[in-house]
Structures are given as C-alpha cells and as structure tokens.
Design brief:
This protein is α+β, with helices and mostly antiparallel strands. Helix content is 27%, strand content 35%. It is elongated.
C-alpha cells in the first residue's frame, strides 16, 4: 500500500523555502533595480526650472514599498501553505494500514473479531437498537441497547447471527434506530474502517482523501478519530 501521488522532491521544497529578494523578475514586474534606475533617470531628466516636488518622490517610494511588502507576504504565505500541505501529507500517509473511525453505516467486518461502533442519540429514548444487515440487505441480528440518555453510545457486534452462528467476513450495514416521542428515528453511526491508501489533492477543494476498505474514498477531514 502506498501514497497515490508524490508530494514533490526535496529539491523543490528547499527551493520554496530558500527564496530571497534576488529572484528573477518575471514578465512586466518591476524589481528594485529597475525602480531605482527609473528614479535616477527621472531625476536626471527633470526640468530644472520646475523640479519634481519631494512629496511626489516620497509617494512613489511609499507605493513601491507597499507593492514589495505585498509580494513578500505572498511569498511567505506560499511557503507556509507548502509546509502545511507537506505536514498533512505525512500525517495522512501515517494512517495507511490503520483503522479510522468515520461517519458511515457500513463496515468491512472480520466476524472472528467482531466490530465496535458508536451511535449519536439526539434525545432520550426508551428503546435504542441496531439492526445488522448483510451485504444483500437481509437482517442478520439486532443489538438491543434499551433506554438511553442523549449523547454518544457504544454498541458491539460479536459477528454472530440471531442464532449464535458465526457469520462470514464481509461488508455489513448497521441501522441504528431509537424510539423518540412514539416514533422510530434513524440515528447517525460511527464505524471503523481500514485505510488502504492515500490520494493527494483529489478531494473537494484539492484536499487529501483516504481510500478505505469497503467505503471507497473519504476526505481526511471526515475522520472522527483514529482507532487504537
């Protein structure tokens, strides 16, 4: 298992952090040398009977200093962004082969080990339960949690059906429901998923995505926690 896209060579990273004020001027940009040359030329060719006011020179210098400051700020922000992206890439790559907890109702389950999940209960309920269904949608068993207060609650499936028989490993769906004010309401669940690989820059907004077993691609920002 490996990262799907490279994050750049060490030379390119060093180049990003090693920039200085002597960089080559691009296109129609005006650098320090060009500005000073223009300023000296302007002084040499001004009308001696109507010299330019000092205030005009100060205004030009202030304008150039402002533009130069914005350019320096942009360069600094690019370096900070590059460093953040590299740090995020290292963090994401460290998750390969590990389990993460994500908001989903499906999970690949090794039934010899079972699975532990969580559900979010928005209001107190007199009856909370989780239906376990196989990949074809058939009910395997029901996990009864009874009456529960508002909050996050754990549930565990041992990998057996309602008769106590071990089910085959595979993908299973967990439908958490609760009786609230006389109605059965669907609840959000959090389940573990194994990270197979990482893709850089393919998610929404160019963010990194995790390729997890049984679920496909999810954004790194969707990870609720990392399973121990």
């Amino acid at each position: 298992m490996s990262i799907a896209n490279s994050i750049g060579t060490g030379a390119s990273v060093l180049d990003q952090y090693g920039r200085d004020d002597s960089r080559e001027v691009q296109g129609d940009e005006m650098g320090k040398d060009q500005f000073l040359t223009l300023l000296v030329t302007q002084l040499n060719n001004q009308d001696p009977l109507a010299p330019q006011e000092n205030g005009e020179f100060i205004a030009q210098l202030a304008q150039f200093s402002t533009v130069e400051g914005i350019e320096t700020l942009n360069t600094s922000m690019e370096s900070l962004l590059s460093g953040y992206q590299s740090s995020q890439a290292l963090q994401a790559s460290s998750l390969v082969g590990r389990k993460v907890i994500v908001p989903t109702d499906k999970a690949m389950v090794d039934t010899t080990e079972g699975v532990k999940g969580q559900l979010a209960l928005p209001e107190p309920s007199t009856n909370v339960y989780v239906n376990v269904l196989d990949d074809e949608g058939s009910l395997v068993t029901r996990i009864n949690l009874g009456a529960q207060d508002t909050g996050m609650h754990d549930f565990v499936w041992d990998g057996t059906d309602a008769s106590g028989n071990i089910m085959p490993p595979g993908r299973y769906k967990f439908e958490a429901q609760a009786s609230i004010d006389g109605e059965n309401k669907q609840l959000a669940t959090l389940l573990p998923a194994n990270v197979d690989s990482v893709s850089l820059g393919n998610g929404a907004g160019g963010q990194m995505t995790l390729n997890v077993a049984g679920l496909g691609s999810i954004n790194l920002s969707d990870v609720y926690s990392i399973s121990q």
